[in-house]
Amino acid sequence: MRRNTWQAPWSYREGVIIGGGLVFLGVVWQVFLPSSGFQLPFWPGNLYMGLIFLALLFTLHFLLKSTSVVKWLASVPAAVTSAALYCGLAILLGIIPQGQSSGSPIVHVLGLNQLTSSWVFALANLYFLTSLGLATLKRLFPFKLKNLGYLLNHAGLWIALTAAALGSSDLQRLSMNCTEGQPEWRAYDGSGQLVEMPVAIELLDFQIDEYPPKLTLVDNETGRIAVPDKKNAFFSVADSSFQLLDYRVEVDRLLPEAGLIGDRFEPVNEVGSPPAARLTVTRLSTGDSQSGWVSSGSFRFQPYAFKISDQYSLVMLPPEPRKYQSDIRVMTQEGQQLTATLEVNKPLKLGGWKFYQLSYHADMGKWSDMSVIELVRDPWIPVVYLGIFMMLAGSLFLFRHGTYKKKGLENGLD
């Protein structure tokens, strides 16, 4: 006998309808409500909200678990449909650039470029966490040791996702522009608002390690790269010789810092002195050779090209940074001082903050006297890690329990 929609027990059909209804409701709220999206309260309001949500789940489990709605929310169809909706939005997070203005008015109106703060994401998150929480409580009471792996996995996931959601309002991501010799205590948030920090940072020294500059062949008329094979269009000046189209190029002399004197370059130790190289170019089809200079230029000097024919010229690209770092001194309000070196992906941790090497004055290159340092504070991250460790422990328990169970079956003990 065919079951009618909304006839108990509910199944995947109702789950799809509920998920679609939440998406529709979220879109309507996103478009017509005066605020730009869903906003969680700051500490301690987000903590109170989390405790109220947890109390609501316990109330639904102990007082209303016999109702059709609560039974279904703790069922597999609810888990699958809510997880599918949540994962679908997570895929959109990876496809649509977040935190940037979009050229599409639909993306902007629906909040898809600010998805984690949209009403659609908030409702999907609530749907998934409610189903996950009730399913966990269903296995928790009464407690059985064989359910420990399931409980650790599901409770850990619930804790990690809930803490990440509640802590999003307390997450601070700021950037500070530090100039050598000038202590700085002011930072800027994503909207450009000035924030005074409890610590001051003084940039002691900024250093860049660069790759050798690269050479390529350009069309004199269009200014575009003339080599059709982009993989073989660039060669380092560290190479002794290489071929570009019908030309063999040899690097005779490389000057890391040089200045133009007449029609040649000489070593110069000045701020902004760019690299230069003397080249010998041989046309393979005719055997004719010629020599000349190229330079990448800098914020102070124009680039210098080597015109090898009426059609082509050799040019040097600006050197790319291999590694850059900042030597800093951090000063707290209590008078403490700490010196450290910041590198990319090697942050400094201090007082609940993480200091990252973010950027520098790119136009000045290795002569930059300014370093951009990112300051991140996420007080909820230990709770997120707790949930992750619980999931790892649950996976280990399931693996161990499954191994013992398999041995028991093989020995005829089960």
From TrEMBL:
It is a multi-pass membrane protein. Residues 302-361 form the ResB-like domain. The keyword Transmembrane helix applies. GO terms for biological process: cytochrome complex assembly. It comes from Gaoshiqia sediminis. This is Cytochrome c biogenesis protein ResB. The keyword 4Fe-4S does not apply. The lineage of its organism: Bacteria, Pseudomonadati, Bacteroidota, Bacteroidia, Marinilabiliales. Keywords: Cytochrome c-type biogenesis, Membrane, Transmembrane, Transmembrane helix. InterPro entries: Cyt_c_bgen_Ccs1/CcsB/ResB, ResB-like_domain. The chain crosses the membrane at residues 12-33, 45-64, 76-96, 116-137, 149-168, 380-399. It is found in: Membrane. It holds the Pfam family ResB. It comes from the Bacteria. Coiled coil: none annotated. One of its GO terms (cellular component) is membrane. Its main location: membrane.
